[in-house]
Design brief:
heterodimer, A: 366 residues, mainly alpha, Fumarate Reductase Cytochrome B subunit, two-stranded antiparallel ribbon, elongated, B: 141 residues, Cytochrome Bc1 Complex, Chain D, domain 2, 57% helix, globular
Chain lengths: 366, 141
């Protein structure tokens, strides 16, 4: 005779499939889609953080098979289980089996590392999120390497997890995937029934406390002054004179030495006569020198500060600009509403701020 | 009675509109300056003409740069709507005073733009008569 038990409670199942969806969304928006999906990518990341935090609490207050104490196995048990699988006769485990349990802890730690490095990248490179005023650009771009590498490791382990589930389902002739959907397993009567109930109220209380503390911390982080961001972001003469013929480029987009070369010969400004009275030139020069790329910590500023041997004064002629726009065809720049590479504002809706967020990109269709 | 009053007010207002559009002491002084200059350049010159200004605004010129062969290349055929810098895509506010009352009120700015743009479009400096006709045309718009 068999009896049906609830192995996976609803929160655990929602966690599992929610994580599947968010990891898929995060992976696709991180590795496949265009930059402007970054908003979805970031949301997926925050979602993963929320799920992990919940699952950690649920590991102590969930129902029996969701609790860490019921699937913490020693190396010997894990080795034993793997050996059983190798000989195609694994013992049946009601909850997580030792190999699966080990995988869960590794996946959990990996997801913590991936979201943590993601938030560091977001703060350091993109100057967004809770760490925007804490993490510098260099740390952010360093973390980006790790963020990507860890994701490939995660994908390999996810593949291993799926293969394990399929193998074990076949060997034990039970549908593990279906159990993770319905939560049910039919077990022989001689197997013990679960005795530890979930404590949802306590879990909700802990979750609420964690959310409260996190929110307070995040609010405090958001009130910090941004790293290297000059207060004088606008200059009337610059906006009027330089912004008359082309959209006024943010001063952070070039190093001081290039601004100086540019201002030194306005009578031949990329073939145009853009000469101005000396007093105006002096005012604009001083302002640009005080607000040039060296004074900002944004991705765009750091990007254009990098040495380019040919030192082009035209921003769109720098190696880094070309690299960033390599996938944008000439026909896109020729569109009526864009009109040329110089018109950054046509696609970068946050052009005026110098931020150049990925999710602020909106390429017009015509 | 009220209807008649309103009608009268509308008629008077409409009749006054062009006059109101050009009524800016700074702009009048600038135009007067160009007129003095134009008469000095050509003693036979009498007064500016909006028609000549319009023809000048729309005409295709030679001698300038290939991208900019007319005022309307950047400012658009209809000066009452915004134009666009043909090279950079930057939106240029309307040239017509009715659509953009700030136009032609700061002498240095006008000279700066005539200085640059006449060179780009005509390949030479504009005469005072051309400048005055141009401004007169756009004041009338």
């Amino acid at each position: 005779m068999t009896h049906r038990i609830k192995v996976w409670d609803l929160p655990t199942r929602v966690f599992h499939w929610g994580l599947v969806a968010l990891v898929a969304a995060g992976t696709i928006t991180g590795l496949v889609t265009q930059e402007w999906w970054m908003g979805v990518h970031i949301l997926a990341g925050y979602g993963v953080v929320a799920l992990i935090v919940f699952r950690f609490i649920w590991g102590f207050l969930g129902s029996q098979y969701s609790r860490f104490e019921h699937f913490t196995f020693g190396p010997r048990e894990i080795g034993e289980h793997l050996r059983e699988i190798l000989f195609l006769h694994p013992r049946r485990h009601i909850g997580h089996n030792p190999a699966g349990a080990a995988m869960i802890f590794v996946l959990g730690c990996l997801l913590v590392a991936i979201t943590a490095t993601g938030i560091v990248v977001l703060g350091g490179e993109e100057k967004q999120g809770p760490l925007a005023s804490v993490v510098g650009y260099l740390l952010g771009s360093g973390a980006k390497e790790w963020h990507g590498t860890l994701v490939y490791l995660l994908l390999a382990l996810v593949a291993g997890h799926v293969v394990g589930v399929i193998a074990e389902s076949r060997l034990l002739k039970e549908n593990l995937v279906l159990s993770m959907i319905t939560g049910d397993k039919d077990l022989p009567d001689d197997l013990p029934r679960p005795t530890v109930p979930a404590r949802p109220v306590a879990a909700a209380g802990v979750l609420l406390a964690v959310v409260g503390i996190t929110a307070a911390g995040v609010v405090a982080l958001y009130t910090l002054a941004p790293i290297r961001s000059p207060a004088t972001a606008h200059n009337v003469a610059y906006d009027k004179e330089c912004g008359a013929c082309h959209y006024a480029f943010h001063p952070s987009l070039m190093p001081a030495r290039k601004w100086a070369s540019l201002l030194a010969d306005l009578s031949n400004h990329f073939g145009e006569d853009a000469s101005l009275p000396p007093t105006v030139v002096n005012e604009i020069s001083a302002w640009l020198a005080a607000n040039s790329g060296e004074h900002w910590d944004t991705e765009a500023a750091n990007w254009f500060l990098e040495e380019d041997p040919s030192e082009p004064l035209r921003i769109t002629a720098t190696d880094n600009w070309r690299a960033k726009h390599a996938e944008i065809g000439a026909e896109v720049f020729a569109r009526k509403s864009i009109g040329g590479r110089v018109n950054c504002a046509a696609c970068h809706t946050d052009f005026a701020s110098g931020q150049f967020d990925d999710q602020a990109i909106d390429i017009p269709e015509e | 009675m009220l209807k008649i009053f309103l009608a009268a007010a509308i008629v008077t207002g409409t009749a006054l509109l062009p006059a109101v559009a050009s009524a800016d002491p700074a702009r009048d002084a600038i135009l007067a300056g160009y007129l003095t200059q134009a008469k000095a350049e050509d003693p036979a010159f009498t007064d500016f003409s909006a028609e000549r200004g319009q023809a000048f605004y729309l005409a295709t010129q030679t001698g300038g740069k290939p991208d900019t062969t007319a005022c309307q290349a950047c400012h658009g055929a209809d000066p009452r709507v915004a134009g666009k810098n043909v090279k950079t895509g930057k939106v240029i506010e309307p040239m017509a005073v009715s659509a953009n009352p700030k136009r032609f009120t700061v002498a240095e700015d006008i000279e700066k733009w005539f200085g640059r743009n006449c060179k780009d479009v005509l390949g030479r400096a504009c005469t005072a008569a051309e400048k005055g006709d141009y401004v007169t045309f756009l004041v009338s718009q």
